Give the backbone structure.
Amino acid sequence: MPNFSFSSTAEEVTDGVSLVGKTVVVTGFNSGIGLETARVLAKRGAFIIGAARTLEKAERTLADLGIDGAAVACELSEPASVRAAVQTILGLDRRLDVIICNAGIMALPERHHKYGIELQFLTNHVGHFIFATGLVDALAPDGRVVVVSSGAHHRASEVGITFDDLSGERSYEPWERYGQSKLANILFARSLQRRFDGTSRVASSLHPGVIKTNLGRNNPKDTQAFYEQMDPATLKSIPQGAATQCLLAARPEAANAAGRYYADCQPSPSSVRATDDVLAERLWQVTEEVVAGLE
Ligand SMILES: NC(=O)c1ccc[n+]([C@@H]2O[C@H](COP(=O)([O-])OP(=O)(O)OC[C@H]3O[C@@H](n4cnc5c(N)ncnc54)[C@H](OP(=O)(O)O)[C@@H]3O)[C@@H](O)[C@H]2O)c1
């Protein structure tokens, strides 16, 4: 991988890369690093399929960006909406070169749950599981799935995935539950890669850095305190925050990223649990069961 690092921007890591003729799907493309990702990959020539909670938001975002693309409604915490989004995208009849599972919610102060699943786990992991596995048949032979996780996956290092309390009813701590959902993102990418093995398809995951976006909207006081106690030098701008996922989506060298976790535009160590393939496979099986029950 060229010498990209913490401070590299999405434009820098994709400089000289042509995505003309390529189709990229991005969830949560109306805000934060998803918006910058869509903007920059479109600038490199990609046709963007942008997913947002509502069609209106997605259409407005495409119009604001002034880019070539298709707008799709996808509310990740509603399985019917995710399945409808999958059908809409398949109906476009385009070969998908990259699927970026970017959308997310963080550290909800109170426990919220739907369908018996804690909302961060449902949105960040289960919704993207339905989305990406639903689209995989349309993925190009050398297509990529890029899953946006977080360094906060370490917050679940002790508990791992609480399979016996997926609703969070017995125990709920906002950051630990966010951490579980982000651990699940990494494990999902690993398990998907195992299913891609022997092909040229690549699944990877990443920590984008710490960036002031709208992600703290559900927990503004806590998030503000978090930013205040941080050394400003450790914060990234939005263009820097979008760099690692743009690199994994677009750079030819990232064909080597199979099953790996990146941060600061380079391969990075993750928690021990995040490299546990037995846990990853169990998560895949349990998620399939959960999804089957969400008809
Ligand atoms: N910012 C950071 O410091 C940081 C650090 C580590 C990891 N990350 C990860 O980076 C990713 C992008 O976050 P961001 O910082 O760019 O935050 P953001 O500005 O809040 O963007 C999040 C996006 O996800 C969408 N979203 C949230 N819930 C959704 C749902 N139920 N269905 C569909 N879309 C939904 C949001 O839509 P609405 O605008 O409609 O709510 C928004 O488009 C997330 O996965 C996050 O966990 C961020």
Summary: Residues 28, 30-34, 52-53, 57, 74-77, 102-106, 123, 148, 150, 207-208, 210-211, 213-215 surround NAP (CB under 6 Å). The mean pLDDT is 96. The two ends are 43 Å apart (CA to CA).
